Amino acid sequence: MFTLDEFREAVKVGIKKVLKKTEDVVISDDEDLGDYGLDSLAGISLVLEVEKSLDIDLGEFDIDEANTINLFYAKAKRVLEEFGDW
């Protein structure tokens, strides 16, 4: 469906859009997304941006339970596998 690299890029672009940043987002795969100022509302917006970018539907997805790129990717993969979309 998509690779970790594609997912990572979608998250970075999503953070940039949600937080209206002009510079590129530099974040490691295990860095807390909250360190970028993502509150719960911005987290929802990030999930929506990632879904749109990758053409996926994660349903009701709580970003607080997956607050790093690695955790977000793993949880998204599990959700998609569960619904047969992986």
From TrEMBL:
SUPFAM superfamilies: ACP-like. Residues 5-80 form the Carrier domain. This is Acyl carrier protein. It comes from Candidatus Seongchinamella marina.
